Structures are given as structure tokens and as C-alpha cells.
# Entry
Amino acid sequence: MALMTIAEALRQAIREEMRRDPRVFCIGEDIGIPGGWGGAFTVTLGLADEFGHERILDTPISELGFTGVAVGAAIGGLRPIVDVQYGDFLFLAMDQLVNEAAKMTYMSGGTIRVPLVMRAPVGATRRGAQHAQSLEAFFTHVPGLKVIAPSTAYDAKGLLKSAIRDDNPVIVFEHKLLYGSKGPRKEQGAISAVGEVPDEEYLVPLGKGVIRREGRDVTIVGKLLTVYRALEAAERLAQDGIEAEVIDPRTLVPLDKGLILDSVRKTGRLVVVEEDNLTGGWAGDIAAIVAEEAFYWLDAPIKRVSAPDTPPPFAPVMEDFYVPSVERVVQAVKSLF
Amino acid sequence: MTTEVLVPPLGTTVDTVTLVKWYVEEGETVQKGAPLFAVETDKATLDVEAPASGVLRQVTARPGDVLQALSVIAVIAAPDEVLAEKTGAPSSSTQAIPSTSASKPGQAVAVTGKRTRIFISPRARRLAEQRQIPLVGLRGSGPDGAIVERDVLAYLERNVAPAITPVAQRMAEQAGLDWRQLQGSGAGGRITREDIERALATPRSEAQPMVSPVTVEVANTPLEVISLQSVRATIAERVVRSHITTAPVTLTAHADATALVALRQQLQQDDIDISYNDLFIYIVARALREHRRLNASLDGDTIKVWQRIHIGLAVDTDRGLLVPVVYDADTKGLAQLAQETRTLIARAQAGQSTPTELSGGTFTITNLGMLGIDSFTPIINLPECAILGVGRINRQAAVIGENIVARQMVWLSLSFDHRLVDGAPAARFLRRVVQLVEGPHLLMA
# Structure
């Protein structure tokens, strides 16, 4: 058992899978250059020393190009792990991801497999509108893609290993404030997601959520950073006698619907917290599922706590206002009683 | 932005008022706080202020209309505002109150129109339906005053013993186990046979901790907790309303029913099977024809003396007191009355009465004679004016001339609402009933 940050846990997952399977390789910008950071957030730091530049492939700034290379390699039988420095750059690679990777298995009647992993950092971290977005809903909307969003070191390693072994394209959203990156890549306002990671081999299956905190009065669903916001809000609410149950789905597609529905059937109230913009977001989808399948168990309206419908602002004070705060979660919950 | 113009609730005793006049015509401008219309209650005439500034629109009430408190009688809109057409019958919110509604619980709430829409969470509604709790009895404490689960649970805690299956109840009672303390594991929290078996398997000392010897148990425990639902709630509402709103006086008279008893025996020998109730309905209906003021109802500020005579008969059933009604009783013969009352009573006892069978009465007869009661003070069945209580018929010593002889005697108790009729006319009616009981041959005259 070792204590690890999420960045370290992801690195170990990649290392183990590359040792285990020679078809696995990494591709992206500045992920292995000598003297570099090991990608934008240190996840691939040092891997080139062990596996060489043949399997830790540095590319020019060309997201569409190297994603296309990876899709082709996956179809050809390799298992690429693609790194975009910021999730915002996924828009450059949309055609390869949405039109090719996501649909190839469907269009070929199952004869073609695309075992590709796309790693993408998300979250507002003092970098302004184009390096800060939360993009999960763009990809949960695309049939054919799996989407994971680990919020602890244990889950990061176990889910990434499952993603690498999965025969479908999997998008991994990693939150910049949860990496626990050190040295020059230490993030201001980061949350310590350092956790125990077993030494022995383990996997976290895709499609299984967890209850981070049990409670009887209200269900709060969060992902990535907002799991921590929800947990902090739950502690504050407990002081007022409201026991919140906090759910972390971990995998967004396929979604562990049953876990959320069972919890709402118990508590009768639901608040969904996410960092994405309100309209058309993932929170609205969770609300719709519960309204459709557990309506008669609801004792209050469903609340979404999301970012407003604006780009993430650059000014720190505005960014703090933009990202859902603990206080907003507490207020949303209290409005249901 | 439109603002509804509501009839204000004027205290707890007044739920209808009469519209006297509008100070502002439809289409005219009104300022918030200015007098908008005047209403009259039983006590006074009051001006009601405009709740907002704007143009008075969609006026649905006219001077003279009787209005239910909290009904919407107009709206105040911005001058250029386009209003949606009122959907449905305009009478839904301003309807004059039908005379029979006064004593019907539920309706008193329902006629207040859209203001009475109940906001309740789906979870709370589900629980309330499962446990058959009337929503009107619940008070909301949730967001925006909505009824939420805890309100239903609080109601259940106050009112209802836990649900239990018949088998489980029998087992518990045989074992002397207080099943009301148990937590049910069956559907909807119902206590099942398994729950009873589990409770019986648990050692007593654990299940029911001994009261420490120094503690003196003074708190009383109800033997049975009965929820005021359905029939019981209706009875409760009606008797309280009668008790509060009427000015009841009870007159009693002792009548010699020897001839009536003989008449019944004779009819039975002739294979006409009639009860004393049928005879009393027959007699009272005919006496009412001559004493119309007792066949009346109070409706707002008018007394309605009814043309037709419909006699209600109080019937004791498993579900509580029901009063099926024999329509036009004064036009029906004894055999027909007997046949009708038999059917009505059987249907009431089987819980099959239709609403029509249980409404529309103009006078009620209640008979406790078969239970050995001599005389009593019946409670008036609103909106009727009077009710006749019939005691048991039994042989008693009576003075006839200079002799003391055994006669079949009966006490008759007439409760009437002094607001509608004075003591003397009511006494004259009772004297006529006594006369007909003592001399049923007069019915032929």
C-alpha cells in the first residue's frame, strides 16, 4: 500500500499496462521530451526513460493529426493512450473522435475495434476561457464513447487500467486541481486527492459508482472536483442536522443509474453539482433520469448547481464566483427543506 | 403581470359573503389601496381595497352574488396587457353556493376554486395515497409551503396505528402482544405474520423493557386510535357544525302507543311486514304536511320551506352513522315504505349506499328504542330544521280514568333549530305526532 497523488497513480497505471502489454503506447505533445514536465501535468514524467521514445511518442502541436494516428493505430491492433494538454484542445480532434473512433465499431458491424484512450485535463484553474472548460457533456452525448472521471488516486489507477484494456474508445477526464502535481506544475487552490493505492494489481470496473458519504436526507451527485465540494457541503449541512449522501459515479458512460436511483428513493431529494455550464449539461441529464424513473419518490424539486452559462472567466475573483462553491451547494440543499 | 382579486376570508365563522357593489367599473383604472368593492357579512358591510394598481378586468361577480371566501372575482392587469381567455365555466370560482353544500364537508373546500390547489411532493402524495390519508387534512412545511413526506409522517404519528394484515393481528391478539409498537416489514410498512413471529421469538424482557420500580406510570395510553377519515370525518364535521351553528331545543312527550302496537300486529297477521320505523316515517311525513315550517332549511339569510317531504332515517352501520333518505315519504303507503326502508338499510349496512340515497333529506327520524333508550336529545341533521328521536315502546303503568292500567308507552324527543321555528309551533307539531301515534285511525281521516 502506498500513498499517491492522482498524477502518480495515473503514471503507475500507464507503466503497469505498458509493461504488461507491448501494444500499449503513449502519444501527445511534450509527453517525453528530455527536461520536460511529462505532459502538461507530469503524468508521463520519466516514462520515456523506461520505455523509450518509440512508445512515448512526442508530436508537433497537431491534435487532429496525432489523434488520427492513434485511431488508425488502434484499428490496426495497437492500444494508444493519447494526451491532450488541455481538454479544451479536444475540439481540434473532434472529427477523429466523434466521426471515426466513436462510430467505427458500429459502422463495421462490430468487426473493427478502436481500443483507444484519450486523456484530457479539465477544470477552471486561473487559465481563462480556453484552458479551463469542463467538457464531459460534449462526450457523454456521443454514442460509442465511454467516459470516465476519476476523483481519487485509487480510482484513477483502477479506472485507467480498465480503460486501456477496454476495446472501445474511452475518454478520461482528469481535473487539474486534483492531480496533486508537484514542482513547477503545482496548482494554486489544488485539493489533495492523495490516497492509498494497493501495491498489488487491481482494476476498477467501468460503470460502477460509489457512495462517498452515506446520508438519509438528500442525495448530492458530483464528479471530479465537485465530489469534494459536495463532501465539504455535507459536513456543513450535518451541523444543521441534514445528513447528505454524496455519490461519485466515477464513470459517466456507462452510468451507474441504479446507484443514484436507489439513493434518491431513500432520501427523496436530489442536488447535482458540476463545473460545466448549466444549459445542456450533464447535471440536467441526471435530473431527467431521476424525474423519469424515481418521480414518485421525490419529496422536493431537483436542483442543479452548475457554472453559469458563460465562458470560464480569467479574473480570479470571477473564476471563484463561476465554479460552484461549497456555499452554493449548501444553499441549494437547504432550499429543499 | 395580473393580480387576482380575492374575496377576503372574514374570520372563522364566515365563509360566504354577499357582494354589495363595485366601486370601480370593469375596464376602469384603480389604485392599490383604494376601495374596490363592498361585501356584506351577517354582521357588517365592509370595503375591500384593491390589491394592486392597474385596470380592473374579468369581473365575474355581480352585486347580490353570494361568494365563497378566497374565490377570485376579477383581476387587475396592466393597461395594455393581453389576458388569456378564462378557461372552463366562469362559475367555477365564483359560483353561488348551492343550498345543500352547507353541510357537506369537502365541498366547502372544493368550491373555493383554484386557490385550494394542493401542492404536495410526489413522495408525500404517494405515501398519503398508500395510507389513505385525505390531503385536505395535511399542512405543508416544505419549500413554498408544499406538503412533504414529513408532514404525512407527522399526520400518521398523530392519527393512525400501523397497518397490519388480518392474520398478523389475530396472532398478536391471541398472544397478547401490543402490535402497535411494532415496525412493519411488509408492503407499505404493513405488519406481517413474520413480524409477529419475530416479536414473539424475542424475549419479553428485551422487547418490552421493564419499567423501573420507582417510576410511576401516569401517562395514559389510548386503547384504540381512530383516524378521522371518511364516514367518521363526515359525521364529526356535521355534528360539530350542527352543534356550533344551530340553536337546538328538545321537546319531549310521552305517547300511548298501544293502538300503534296493535295496528302493527294486525298488519303483520295480514302478511304486511312493517317496522315501527316505517310507522313513524308514515306518521311524521303526514304530520309535516300540516306543519310545513318544520320541513325547512336555513340558507344564508333565507328560510327555505320545502315543498316535498323527504324523511331521513338514522341507521347504525359498521362504518358509523348513515342517514338514507326516503323521498316523498308523505305520498307512499306503508307497504311501499317498508320495502324501501328495508333496501335502504341493507345497502347502508353493506356500504353500498349511493350519494343520492344519503342526501336531500328534509327531516330525520332516529330510533334508539331497540337499544332500550327511553328518551334523548338528538342532534339536528343540517341543513334540516328538526329531528325526531323515538324511544323504546314498553308496557308501563298509565292512568286511564280512575284506573291504573298497563299501556304500551313511548317517549318522543323532538330537537328543532330555534332559528327557524319557535317553541310553540314545534310543540304543536309534536302534539300532532303524539295524536297520530295514539290514534292511528286518524290517518284515515
The first helix of chain A runs from residue 6 to 20. The mean pLDDT of chain A is 96.
